[in-house]
From TrEMBL:
Domain N-acetyltransferase, residue spans: 4-150
PROSITE patterns reported for this sequence: GNAT (PS51186)
PANTHER family on file: N-TERMINAL ACETYLTRANSFERASE, N-TERMINAL AMINO-ACID N(ALPHA)-ACETYLTRANSFERASE NATA
Gene that encodes the chain: rimI
Pfam families in the cross-refs: Acetyltransf_1
Entry superkingdom: Archaea
Molecular function (Gene Ontology), one example: protein-N-terminal amino-acid acetyltransferase activity
GO cellular component, one term: NatA complex
Keywords assigned: Acyltransferase, Transferase
Protein name: Ribosomal-protein-alanine N-acetyltransferase
Provenance organism: Methanothermococcus okinawensis
Amino acid sequence: MEKVKIRRMRYEDIPQVVEIERDSFPQPYPPPLIMQILSYFPEGFLVAEDERSKKVVGYIMGLIEFGHGHIISIATSKEYRKRGIGSALLKELEDILFKKYNVAYITLEVRFNNREARLFYYRRGYMDKRLLPRYYEDGTDAILMIKKNPYIQLPSPPVVVSMW
Ligand SMILES: CC(C)(COP(=O)(O)OP(=O)(O)OC[C@H]1O[C@@H](n2cnc3c(N)ncnc32)[C@H](O)[C@@H]1OP(=O)(O)O)[C@@H](O)C(=O)NCCC(=O)NCCS
C-alpha cells in the first residue's frame, strides 16, 4: 500500500475513474451521472492515487440515501488489485459514513455472479440481505448486502421477569 494515497475525487479525475469502471463492469455509470452524484456528496467519492505516477488506480463512490449509507461503485485497476487498495478505499468510506455521519448501516448491490466482490465484502463484515431479481439491464440478479454500524452501541433489551 505504500506509494498509493487515498484522497477525495476531483472533477478532473472522472475520465480516469470512467476508464477503470469500463474495464471493470459490463455496464459502467455514464460520466454525467458520476459528476452529478459527486457534486451531491463529494465526501463519499474517493480515489486511490499512485503517488509516483499521479495516476488514479482505484475509486469508491458512496453517499447517504434516506439516512443510510450506500456504496454505488468500487473498483481497482486490474494491475493494482490484491494490494490492499480496495480495502483501504472501503475502510476510508466506512469511517466517513459510520463515524462522522453515524449512519446505522451501509447497503450495496452486487452482481449475483460476482464471486470475487461478494467474498471481498463478506470478509469485511457485509451480509446478504436479499435477492434483487433481474436488477441489472442485462437481466442479471443482484444481491443486496448490508453492514451494520459497528460503532453504534444499541441499548440492551430490557430484562422482563415474569411473576406468573
Ligand atoms: C473488489 C475489488 C474492488 C477489490 O479491490 P482490491 O484492490 O483488489 O482489494 P484488496 O487488495 O484490498 O483485497 C482483495 C484481496 O487481495 C488480498 N490482498 C491484499 N493485499 C495483498 C497483498 N499484498 N498480497 C496478496 N494479497 C493481498 C486481500 O486480502 C483481499 O483478499 P480477502 O478478501 O481474502 O481479504 C476489485 O477486485 C475490483 O475492482 N473488482 C472489479 C469491480 C467490482 O467487482 N467491484 C465490486 C462491485 S460491487
